Amino acid sequence: MANRRLSKEIRCIHHEMNGIYGHRRIKAELAGMGHACGRHLVARLTREACLRVRSRKRWRLVSSSRHALPIASNHLNRQFASDRANRYWVSDMTYVRAAQGWLYLAAVTSCCRLGDAPSDAAGPGTRRIRDSRCSPTAANRGTAALGS
After folding, report:
1. For the residues 138-147, what does the mean pLDDT come to?
2. Which residues of 76-91 are buried (b: 16+ CB within 10 A; e: fewer)?
3. What end-to-end distance do the CA atoms of the chain give, in Å?
4. What is the separation of C-alpha 39 from the centre of its chain, rounded to a whole number of angstroms?
């Protein structure tokens, strides 16, 4: 008799939560309602009621390289170092899932070298020396445009 009432509550919770709650969450809901039961009992009753958890949508590729559209040529050929500011600019974009939906993030940066700093293998006591050619004031002087 108690299992029938519990099974009815399990069906009700499963329906209210649109089928996304598994036996652990259903057990927590039941405990919050004052029902004393174990998760194995809830799992068995859920199975016997043929209730299945709706799984999340799998990730799907949303962009494809299989198209006949023109592709921009690779001017830098992975040689990103530059001796002056505003000579080369690179960018990338991505999207991030947030509570509001998908947010798009784009980053744009100059490929200016910040000086001849020692490598990371030199140790934690080393300092980077800022190259005056790459200072914000040099970037505002209107030095060379993209790719020139």
Report:
1. 44
2. eeeeeebebbbbbeee
3. 82
4. 32
CB of 134 closer than 8 Å to CB of 113: yes
Nearby residues of 113 by Cβ (< 8 Å), 6 or more positions away = 81, 82, 83, 131, 134
- How would you write 104-121 as a 3-class SS string? EEEEEEECECCCCCCCHH
Answer with the residue of higher pLDDT: 57 or 145. Answer: 57
High-pLDDT (> 90) share of the chain, %: 26
Q: Torsion-angle region of residue 8: left (phi > 0), alpha (psi -120 to 50) or beta?
A: alpha
**Chain segment 64-115, per-residue pLDDT in tens:** 778 888 888 888 888 877 777 788 888 889 989 899 998 999 998 888 766 5
